[in-house]
Amino acid sequence: MSNDCSRSLDLNDKIEEVIENSRTIEASETKAKIMEQFRGTNGVHVDVLRLSLLCPISGARLTNPVKGAHCTHVECFDLSSYLGACVLQDHDWKCPICDMDLPQTHLVFDEYIKNILADTKPVIDYVELLENGEYRCNHPSLNGNIKLTVQNQQGRVINLTVKLDTPMWKVKRVFVNRIGTPDALNTLRFCFDGRRVTDEDTPRSLEMEDNDTIDVYLEQNGGNLI
């Protein structure tokens, strides 16, 4: 038997072993931890905290959410991704979120996050945590559309609703036509969250949320906002 095949069998055995033997953190325990996080914001009032439903290792939506028994964070990673990285790729047995030593025997499942995954659509990749320990979905992918603001330095602003998969070149075209400068299309550049946006980027790929703002500038103007 090849070494790769042997490792794959070992991985499957470890996954089954964890599923059968690891304990599950009750939802009430995680809710209490969430409320504690809100109390520990150093006097800064926070309405919501975002909880990702994506595995930090694979980038895919969680299936079997786990973390370390001694980890203090709410976030989880996926069991298969973690064991795969450690068994098949020889990664260190450390939590990918907090870097704590995390052998297989210290893995625990999280009932709170398992419930969220069961109650939300597969397209939902995050939820917002509330001060009372509950959560809500406030995600543009619920309806496939998102509201955006596009503005330039002169204060010209347009507000529009686009689909999550609309390429930015289409948004550019709408902007120049709305403000009456169609000849500027080829030199127009968008910036979002501190970085340049490409023509093929979409609100989904940029992880935009409702009412996010895109800044506009011209290449020929020294990179200044127009």
TrEMBL record:
Gene Ontology annotations for the cellular component aspect, listed alphabetically: chromatin
UniProt organism field: Ditylenchus destructor
InterPro entries hit by this protein: Rad60/SUMO-like_dom, Ubiquitin-like_dom, Ubiquitin-like_domsf, Znf_MIZ, Znf_RING/FYVE/PHD
Domain (SP-RING-type) ranges: 40-122
This protein's UniProt keywords: Metal-binding, Zinc, Zinc-finger
UniProt keyword Metal-binding present: yes
The Ubiquitin-like domain, residue ranges: 146-223
RNA-binding keyword on record: no
Lineage summary: Eukaryota, Metazoa, Ecdysozoa, Nematoda, Chromadorea
Protein name: MIZ/SP-RING zinc finger domain-containing protein
GO biological process, one term: protein sumoylation
GO MF annotation list: SUMO ligase activity; zinc ion binding
Pfam families linked: Rad60-SLD (PF11976), zf-MIZ (PF02891)
CDD domains, per database record: SP-RING_PIAS-like (cd16650)
Domain of life: Eukaryota
